[in-house]
Structures are given as structure tokens and as C-alpha cells.
Amino acid sequence: MRSLKRSTRTARLRMGPRHIAGQSAWAVGAVFFVGCTLFPNEPNMLQIFDRTASADASTYEGPAVSWELAVSEFAAREPVAGVRIAVRNRDQSYGVLTGARWSLPAPRLVQAVLVEAFERSARVPGVGPSSMLRGQCQLNGELREFHWAPHLEQATLTMAVRLQCGASDAVQAMRTFTASQPVEGRGAASLVSAFDDALAELTPELVEWALANGPTEPRAIDPR
Prior knowledge:
By secondary structure, the chain is of the alpha/beta class. The chain has four helices and nine strands.
């Protein structure tokens, strides 16, 4: 899987009416508080984080399967569903981080990471986003958590996953995967590194689970 890398835009951040319209008072307060206290010494620029290097292919070694896999974009609720980095506060309310965001909405980012993980395993004859591939099996579900909790100083990722196969999309298996990693240091890059570590922890386990729970190979009939 790929780690997450920063690129920087020179667009300055403004807390004008266009940015806060339609948001509740607590959400605006959470965004402002987080943006002002987490990165006080960083430049007033919008930092955009993407994926870079992949995990070694040996992480995914194992027997191959004969079926193709389509990976869906997982469902998610706001603010996890967007490009802003979600923040879970001590009182369980949500805000979003100012000054940094993902290059893609979080569900699409996770989808891309999973597709690449299955590709690097070299254990499926074909894998891709469900918008591009109609495989014998489909991986879908819900991205339930993809947030930073400042009071716990950790990033958390939780996915409820279903593997469905065949013409009827019968559910082969269901499982919830979760991982949390500490945020070490200050600044957006340290925070994103923790998300990267959580993905690195969770992805190999998910790949192995999906490949182990897909359709079994039909037994050859002895002609004698």
C-alpha cells in the first residue's frame, strides 16, 4: 500500500461566510480551535496529502485465486466522506482540520490503497475499482472511522467490509477491521504518517481475509 505524501498549495485560508454556511456552531468552533492550536508554526497554506511508496510485495505472499475482484468505494458519513481530515473531539463531536486535506475524498483514497494492495499481492488475475471492473467478487462496505483524536493523540481507521460473489452477489464473509496508531510529533505530516501506519497495519490483514473467504476452487473430476 502507499504511504501518504504532502504537496502544498499557496492558497491562503479564509474563515469567511462561504466556509461556515450551513455548519452548526459546535462544528465551526471545533474547526477553528483545531486549526489554531495544532500547527501554530506552519505556513498559512493549504497542504494536500497523497499516497507515495508501496509496501513490499512479500507482505502479501500466499496462494493465488482464480476469481477477479472489484473494489467499491466504501460508504461513509460526513465528515469522514470528504477531503478534509476529520477530527473526533473528546465530547464525541466532529470537526475538520484547517490547513490540510486529502487529495481525494477519504473513501476513494482507501479504495485506491486497497486496489493497489491486491495488485501487489499478485494473487488475483484481475482487480480494480468497481466502476472499471465487473469481477466475480466485489469488496464493499462502510468506512466508519478515519479520524484524528487529539485527546488520545492517535489516528483511527475502521472499516466494516463485505465480500460478495457470484451473479446474485451472495455475501461470502463480513468483518470489521480497525487500527489505531499514535501521532508522534507535531504538524500535519506527523498526523498523516499516523494514518499511513494505520493503513499499513490493516491492509495486509484485510487482503488475506478476502482471499481466504472467496469462492473455493471446484474439485477436478477423475475421469477414471
